[in-house]
């Protein structure tokens, strides 16, 4: 079965947007049942309750989930509150245990998506299943790897598929835990418009403050679902405490989201899409400028240590000539590029002068 041939009618059984919520990790039966009950009481429109049973961690000796014992708690949540249930699987043993526990939705995590052998093992274990299977984007920004994982599942005759955008890792310190890099997700959406796309603002933000903003941006771009980590006592959570919210906060967040009708998408939605992409690029530009100024500080230290003048005419000439060449190559205005580089250079001079003064 080709990935592009899949209709993915499964998403229509849920209200738009599909909301998947619950704790990052199952910790106890009490924690699971309290979280589920309070989501109901708060009026959060959540049809699918999620909980991590097995937790892949970056370093050893950390909490890696309660294991199969937690599947019984997940089943009890389903029986008592009527939620469909969801959990992450990383190998065939996880799949078998989750299927036996009647888990409705399985997702493949970012660390597993990067491993084609692991994805193929999961696909083989799920051969022909009618379960909903979601694939998170890989840790690194690799669109082909993301699509490849879904192709392996489609090749195993799994036809209820979806994708989760959880952001991409970066070695640089940013305001995000994982940078959104919206363009990659939109490229995915353009190539595979038949695959429902769900946003995971919890892992993108890594904290509670930006969740609604990221979720709203995703809905503006035509995403069909939201996955948000929700815990009855977030501050005491055994994993990812900073990014989890209470059931009551979840209900408030969901009520504040503006849902876009993709079938009636027009000028406003297209404009919003481009604005989101521009914001994403602007963020990257600012981050790069910050890195450039840090390099200027290092140069300023070297010049100060070696008693050199801040302004080096030959270097400025080389920079301007480079800017002109790049302007020609990209078809941009030379005047525009030169003005930008002049501003950057002026700020670099200020940075280096401040270093000279401080010594």
> How large is the share of residues in beta strands?
5-15%
Shape label: elongated
CATH-derived topology of the largest domain: TIM Barrel
Question: Radius of gyration, rounded?
Answer: 24 Å
Number of beta-strand segments? 8
**Mean of the pLDDT scores?**
90
Low-confidence stretches: none
SS content category: alpha/beta
Q: For the record, what is the CATH homologous superfamily label of the largest domain? A: Aldolase class I
- Estimate the helix proportion, in percent: 40-55%
- In CATH, the architecture of the largest domain is Alpha-Beta Barrel
Q: What is the CATH class designation of the largest domain?
A: Alpha Beta
- N/C terminus separation: 68 Å
What is the strand arrangement across the widest sheet? 1-2-3-4-5-6-7-8
Q: What is the total number of structural domains?
A: 2
Largest sheet descriptor: 8 strands, parallel, barrel
SSE order, as H and E?
A: EHEHEHEHHEHEHEHHEHHHH
Q: What is the count of helical runs?
A: 13
Question: How would you portray this structure in words?
Answer:
Residues 265-356 form the Chorismate mutase domain. It comes from Marnyiella aurantia. InterPro entries: Aldolase_TIM, Chorismate_II_sf, Class-I_DAHP_synthase, CM_dom_sf, CM_II_prokaryot, DAHP1/KDSA. It is an enzyme of class 5 (isomerase). Keywords: Transferase. With 359 residues, the protein is α/β, with parallel strands linked by helices. It folds into two domains: 3-264, TIM Barrel (Alpha-Beta Barrel); 269-358, Up-down Bundle (Chorismate Mutase Domain, subunit A). Helix content is 50%, strand content 10%. The protein has 13 helices and eight strands. It has helices at residues 29-42, 69-81, 92-100, 110-113, 116-125, 143-155, 182-191, 201-205, 211-220, 247-256, 267-305, 313-330, 334-358; strands at residues 18-22, 48-50, 84-89, 105-108, 132-136, 161-165, 197-199, 225-229. Strands 1-2-3-4-5-6-7-8 form an eight-stranded parallel β-barrel, surrounded by five helices. Helix 3 links the parallel strand 3 and strand 4. It starts with 17 loop residues before the first strand and ends with a helix. The model has no long low-confidence stretch (mean pLDDT 90).
